[in-house]
TrEMBL record:
Native species: Streptomyces griseicoloratus
Regions that span the bilayer: none
EC primary class: ligase
SUPFAM superfamilies hit by this protein: Anticodon-binding domain of a subclass of class I aminoacyl-tRNA synthetases, Arginyl-tRNA synthetase (ArgRS), N-terminal 'additional' domain
Protein name per its UniProtKB record: arginine--tRNA ligase
Limits of the DALR anticodon binding domain: 253-369
Taxonomy of the source species: Bacteria, Bacillati, Actinomycetota, Actinomycetes, Kitasatosporales
Keywords for the protein's UniProt record, in alphabetical order: ATP-binding, Ligase, Nucleotide-binding
GO molecular function: arginine-tRNA ligase activity; ATP binding
Swiss-Prot/TrEMBL catalytic activity: tRNA(Arg) + L-arginine + ATP = L-arginyl-tRNA(Arg) + AMP + diphosphate
Length: 369
């Protein structure tokens, strides 16, 4: 059972309790599962009982005790423990991380993508279909003639398309030729047409303009500087995006990806390859949770037209992956084992997610740094 499957299992338990008359609430659209916090136990935990307590007119602990019998014994769950004021804690079979890594390696850079166009209410709930700014069967996005607005529109369109949403983009004026040459945005490159006023029904993007010209930063650092902050925040435009050290989030993301690719090459030289399996290294649960959260982050970034959510998520994945990477290869005379192959598969999965996410932001993910 993957974390995403666990989330659906908990949601199903809530619906069963409602149908049985044991809870009088409207089931939430989704349930969030995370690594257990202080005082928790097991592999994952959820605060859904705390969220439902007030509408149910009961204490969180009582709600958790109602839900627990619907979860105990479910395939993939070995134990369910209620802790604190009403947190549900889950212990899963070892197959959970294995299935997640297998799925990522199978899907490659398209992990988290939706195959085919979304339609109906599912598309509305997950990727924003049917909301303001949606045209017939797709999204209409308009931006002002500003370098940050054009870059944000390009990234939003990429993310929406990853979720199966057809997109048409329009700018109020012709993008500057240097924007395309350096940042990769122009007519036919993130901008489908030019015109003003916006097409009726279009979503208009007006992020806070950059306080300085991002072009001297180059394509990758320039796009990151414009996309990493939320649209309502003023971006920082400076050499901090170019430094090759840990203080630079973009460097950490690209370094974690490049290091994961190097580990695969180095392992091949040692005669072994990635093979998904149980991994017990410190901090692995945080990395698995971040990787499992990737499809939800893509859907939320599409729905909210917020590429900054994806950028910040990539930093989370990289920061969770970096402590694992030094443990992947055998040391000294140590022979490659199943544990090494499993850690290598997890490292490769992390690098795959980072590469796919950077691509959606229009940023290169080099194999060498």
């Amino acid at each position: 059972m993957t974390p995403a499957e666990l989330s659906r299992t908990v949601l199903h338990a809530v619906r069963r309790a409602v149908d049985a008359g044991q809870l009088s609430v409207t089931p939430p659209e989704r349930v969030v599962v995370t690594p257990p916090g202080p005082g928790g136990c097991g592999d994952y935990a959820t605060n859904v009982a705390l969220q439902l307590a007030r509408p149910a007119g009961r204490t969180p602990l009582a709600v958790a005790e109602v839900l627990r019998p619907y979860l105990v014994g479910t395939d993939g769950i070995t134990d369910v423990v209620v802790t604190g004021p009403g947190f549900l804690n889950f212990s899963l079979y070892d197959a959970a991380p294995v299935a997640l890594v297998q799925e990522i390696l199978r899907r490659g850079s398209r992990y988290g993508f939706v195959d085919g166009p979304r339609s109906g209410r599912a598309g509305q709930n997950q990727a924003g279909q049917g909301q303001a700014g949606q045209g017939q069967g797709g999204a209409l996005i308009h931006c002002v003639r500003d370098v940050r607005a054009v870059v944000v529109m390009d990234a939003v369109a990429r993310i929406l398309r990853s979720q199966g949403v057809p997109v048409l983009t329009r700018c109020s004026g012709h993008p500057h030729p240097e924007w395309e040459r350096i940042l990769g945005v122009g007519i036919g490159a993130g901008v489908d047409s030019v015109g003003s006023p916006p097409t009726p029904g279009a979503t208009v993007l007006r992020p806070v303009p950059a306080p300085a010209d991002p072009l001297p930063l180059g394509r990758d650092a320039g796009r990151w500087a414009l996309l990493h902050p939320a649209a309502h925040d003023r971006p920082l435009i400076g050499d901090e995006h170019l430094v090759q050290r840990e203080s630079n989030p973009l460097f950490r993301v690209r370094y974690a990806h490049a290091r994961s690719r190097a580990l695969v090459r180095n392992a091949a030289d040692l005669g072994f390859a990635p093979e998904p399996g149980p991994v017990t290294a410190a901090g692995v649960q945080s990395l698995l949770a971040a990787l499992a959260d990737h499809p939800r982050v893509l859907a939320a970034a599409a729905r909210q037209h917020a590429p900054d959510r994806l950028a910040r998520h990539l930093v989370t994945v990289a920061d969770a992956a970096l402590p694992l990477l030094p443990t992947v290869l055998p040391r000294g005379a140590e022979k490659p084992s199943a544990a090494h192959r499993a850690r290598l598969a997890l490292a490769e999965a992390a690098g795959t997610v980072l590469a796919g996410g950077l691509s959606l932001l229009g940023i290169d993910a080099p194999d060498h740094l």
